[in-house]
Every structure is written in C-alpha cells, then in structure tokens.
UniProtKB/TrEMBL annotation:
UniProt subcellular location: Mitochondrion
Native organism taxonomy: Eukaryota, Metazoa, Ecdysozoa, Arthropoda, Hexapoda
Name of the featured protein: acetyl-CoA C-acyltransferase
Protein origin, superkingdom: Eukaryota
Family: Belongs to the thiolase-like superfamily. Thiolase family.
Pathway: Lipid metabolism; fatty acid beta-oxidation
Source species of the chain: Phaedon cochleariae
Recorded GO MF terms: acetyl-CoA C-acyltransferase activity
Gene Ontology BP terms: fatty acid beta-oxidation
Length: 474
C-alpha cells in the first residue's frame, strides 16, 4: 500500500535515544571504552508501577457461543483467570476496578458481582467504571492513581461486554404508565390507566452505537471522517485485510498467550480462539456494499469492527510488591493521558490528539516507540488518524503545534492484528491492547510501546508502556 510504504523509517545506529539489541564495540575516544545503555523512564514519584500480567476470554462475535451468558459470567472467567495465571492469592488483592459500557441492570455494579462470582474475598471492594471503548484503560489508570496515592498495593482491573444480550427498554410512555399503575390502589384506577394505552406505547427503545449529542452512529462518523481525510475504499479494505492476516498469523504462532480457554455451559468443546478472524480476499471485500452511507460510502462490514462478546482482566501493583511475591512483571506503566475533541467532526481522532501529547510528556520521539497498538474501530478511522498525524496543516490548525508528529511506522503497528479482526468488546479492549503491547515488546525485543484509542463522545486515551527486564514471552 502506498500509504504504508511511505511510512517506513530507517533508523540510524548513531541516532540519539535508539534502543540497541547489541552492545557497542570499542570507540575511539580518549576516555576509553564506553557501553551503550537502554533508555528508561524513571517514575515521577519514585515508585515503579507494573503490569504483572493479563488475560482475556476469547473474543466472539455476538450471537455465537457466549450468547446465553450474562456479562458477569464472562467477567468471572477473566477475573478468576488472572489469579490462576499469576498464582496470586485472592486475599492479596486490595481492590478491583472493572469496566462495562452497555450495562446489565441486574448487575449494575458488575465489578462487585463478577468478583464475588469469581471467588474473590468478600472484603475486597470493587467498583465499576465506564468510558465507552476505553473503559478498561480507565480502570487501569485509576489503579495507577490509587497505588501512587498509597491507598492500595495490588489491584485487578479489566472490562466486559456482552453484545448478544443488550437491555431493551419499554418506551418512556409505557414506563411512565407502568410506574403510575403500580401506585394505583383500586381496580378502577388501574383500568382507567390501561385505557390510556396507545399503539406507540409498545415501541421498544433499543441501545444504539450512536452519539447522544448528535444522534449519528459511529459508522456514519467513520465514513465522513474517511472522506474528509481522503482514505479510499481500497486503502480501508487493504488495512482490514492486513489486520485479519496479522491476527491469524499471530494466533497460529501461539502469540496470544493472554487468551484463556472457556468451557461454556451447553457448548461441547472449550472455546479457545477468537472467532472473528477471517482472512478474505481483496475481491470479496470489494464486493460488499456500504454499511452506513449508501450508496457512495466506503465503510463496510469488512473494514469495520464487529459487535463482540468478551472479557479481560489484569493485575497491577508496585515493582517492589511484585519482587516480594516473586512475580515477573510484563511492563512498567509509565505515562498516560486522556483527550477530548469535537464529537461530531472529530469523533474518532483520539489517537491523533493523544499520541504527540503522551510522547512529549514522556520525553520520547516516535522513532523511540518499538510497538504501536491502536484500537481499530474502523479501517477508515485508523487511516484518518494516520493522515492527521502526518499533516502539518492539521497540527497547526487543530493541535496548536508547528509541525506534524508523523504517522507510525507501519512495520511496528498492530502486528498481531487489532479490533477489526480480533474483535472489540467495548470495555475489554483496553487490557487487550496493553497485553499485546507488553507481549510484543518481549517477542520483538523492544523497549517502549504506545497505546492509543478513540472512544464515544470524541474522547480518547494514550499510554506509554516500558518493557520490564524480567518479562518473559509466556
């Protein structure tokens, strides 16, 4: 793809801040032999906070093997799985923060219900967070704050989404009638209220992946954004095909070590893989019709993420605590920030805004990022962010910057696939991004990873992870 070939950056072995795999040989300096060292980011408050490890259920297309499960049952699998994988006792967990977006009203504080179902100590507090597609990022960064403040030492974070069974409400007219009828004291009063029912009372209210402020679905926004930045249908299909191909190859190579099998009640075999990864052909992808803006839109089912069921969980603590327990963390959690912008015209540009800010906050340059992991809501969204990041005009007019930050090196970008192929259970994706970043840093012998994601409401997150010296590719 033309866009990608233009992004390949060749690193110079003498460039400042490069992370080398080999030790430099003797140099002709009068001061004698020097040895290069890897750059590291020191914590601002003197305390290293680490991502010990993380797990996730397989991510499945809604309506498939997880369809009969309630969200807390999926979350239970992830929350129990992280304890099994790390070997940490449930009694050592100080707090649990868990995300969800489409809430099941019966388990409104799903963090508590899921942790109890998973066998955690009933003395361990749990609370639920929500910030659309970056809800588990909020869980993780909230944990960083609580640990840095000295309140807790070990926190489990994660998120869950079950799009197979979303809450569908009666219309507001019907709800109002039912509440008033519940207060009626006589049969005559109840019959009088029933007589006011009209046909439109029975029209249900379904949740939609749409902006309340604009009423526009995210797919429409993605289509307009792709058009605004000139991301063609061919580019979008090519990027989506890359995502599926990379995910398939990573799975076959055994790289998805965060994935834990799930023996679903009523399902014969354990569910042990994501079922949305499908490597198609350019011709078949090109044959699909636009999904949102018809007939001339470029966003289709093939280059969009799909409604997904899944859950994730991770363990966050201090490096000191990890050493005391003999744990080998995956990565340091270094810097993070959240951004927001116009939810109508720039709904999905969170990565473009967040990336330069978190790099500057960390004192890093794009060339020093070895692993890039962006949430792929739509192929057009990713390409629009690339083009925005690679535009001096956009930097000057919208970001108060003199020059562009530049698009990520595609050879280091989402090399194990992304949400387009693996799936996107809204509140679970943040932990999946963190674990792919941490595990890729180990396998690809990198030092720094950058996570970025867009979210509903025109918001977004950017995070910096640094490989931990004890990390292993388990």
């Amino acid at each position: 793809m033309a866009l990608y070939s233009a992004r390949n950056l060749v690193k110079s072995p003498t460039a400042l801040g490069l992370i080398q795999l080999q030790i430099n040989t003797l140099r002709a300096f009068s001061i004698g032999t020097q040895v290069s060292q890897k750059k590291t980011l020191a914590p601002k408050n003197g305390q290293n906070i680490v991502l010990v490890d993380g797990v996730r259920t397989p991510f499945l297309m809604s309506g498939t093997d997880f369809a009969k499960l309630m969200p807390h049952e999926l979350a239970k699998q992830a929350l129990s799985g992280i304890l099994k994988k790390t070997g940490v006792s449930k009694d050592l967990i100080d707090y649990i923060i868990y995300g969800t977006v489409i809430q099941e009203v019966k388990t409104s504080n799903i963090a508590r219900e899921a942790s109890l179902a998973a066998g955690y100590n009933d003395k361990t507090p749990s609370h639920t967070v929500t910030l659309a597609c970056i809800s588990s990022n909020v869980a993780m960064t909230s944990a960083i704050g609580l640990i840095n403040s000295g309140v807790y030492d070990m926190i489990v974070c994660g998120g869950v989404e079950t799009m197979s069974d979303v809450p569908i409400r009666h219309s507001k007219k019907m709800r109002s009638l039912m509440l008033r009828a519940n207060k009626a004291k006589t049969i005559q009063q109840k019959l009088s209220m029933l007589a006011t029912i009209r046909p439109d009372f029975f029209v249900p209210e379904l949740p939609a992946v749409a902006e309340y402020s604009s009423g526009e679905t995210m797919g429409h926004s993605a289509d307009r954004l792709a058009a605004a930045f000139g991301a063609s249908r061919k580019e979008q299909d090519e990027f989506a095909l890359r995502s599926h191909t990379c995910a398939q190859q990573a799975f076959e190579k055994g790289y998805f070590t965060d994935l834990i099998p799930f023996q679903v009640p009523g399902v014969d075999k354990p569910v042990d893989r994501d079922n949305g990864i499908r490597v198609s052909t350019p011709e078949k992808m090109a044959s699909l019709k636009p999904a949102f803006i018809k007939p001339h839109g470029t966003v289709t089912a093939a280059n969009s993420s799909f409604l997904t069921d899944g859950a994730s969980a991770c363990l966050i603590t201090t490096e000191e605590k990890a050493k005391q327990l003999g744990l080998k963390p995956k990565a340091y959690l270094r810097n993070f920030l959240y951004v927001s912008q116009d939810p109508i015209d720039q709904l999905l540009l969170g990565p473009a805004y967040g990336t330069p800010q978190v790099l500057e906050k960390s004192g890093l340059t794009p060339k020093e990022i070895d692993v890039w992991e962006f949430h792929e809501a739509f192929a057009g969204q990713i390409l629009a962010n690339f083009k925005a990041m690679d535009s001096d005009w956009f930097a000057q007019h919208y970001m108060n910057r003199q020059t562009k930050i530049g698009a990520p090196d595609i050879s280091k970008f989402n090399n194990w696939g992304g949400s387009l192929s693996i799936g996107h259970p809204f509140a679970a994706t943040g932990v999946r991004l963190a674990m792919h970043t941490a595990n890729r840093l180990v396998r690809e012998d990198g030092q720094f990873g950058l996570i970025a994601a867009c979210a509903a409401g025109g918001q977004g997150v950017a995070m910096i992870l640094e490989r931990h010296p004890d990390a292993t590719p388990n």
